[in-house]
Amino acid sequence: MAVLPEYQRHGIGTQLIRQGLEQCRQGGSQAVVVLGNPQFYARFGFIPAGERQLRCEYRVPARVFRVLELEPGALVGGLVRYRPEFGDCG
C-alpha cells in the first residue's frame, strides 16, 4: 500500500488499511503481514513478526516486518514467503 507524497497526511493510508483489514477479516484471513513503517502499522495493532516467531524470506530490518493476528492464536511461527511478483522490484 502506498500513497503519493502530495496526498499523505490526509487519512488516505489509514482508510486503505482499515478497509483492507476489514476485507481480510470478511474473506476469512487469520493474519496479515506487512513490510512497512513500524510507527504507522503499530496504530492498527501490528507487532514485530518476530514476536510470533515469524521470519521473512527477504533480508529486511526486523522492525519493518510486522504482523497482525486477525484470529488470536492463529500464528505458530515459520517462514513467510511472498508471491513471486513481490521479489521482482528492480
Would you give the CATH topology? Aminopeptidase
CATH superfamily placement: Gcn5-related N-acetyltransferase (GNAT)
Q: If classified by CATH, what would the architecture be?
A: 3-Layer(aba) Sandwich
How many β-strands, per DSSP? 5
- Whole-angstrom Rg: 14 Å
Helix-strand makeup class: alpha+beta
CATH class: Alpha Beta
Number of helices: 3
Question: Which term fits the overall shape?
Answer: globular
The domain count comes to 1
Query: What series of H and E elements makes up the topology?
Result: HEHEEEEH
Major sheet: 3 strands, antiparallel
Q: In a nutshell, what does this entry contain?
A:
The chain is of the alpha+beta class.
Structure overview:
The protein contains three helices and five strands; from the N terminus they run αβαββββα. It is of the alpha+beta class. The chain has a single domain (5-87), classed as Aminopeptidase (3-Layer(aba) Sandwich). The chain has a three-stranded antiparallel sheet with strand order 1-4-2. Strands 3-5 form a two-stranded parallel ribbon.
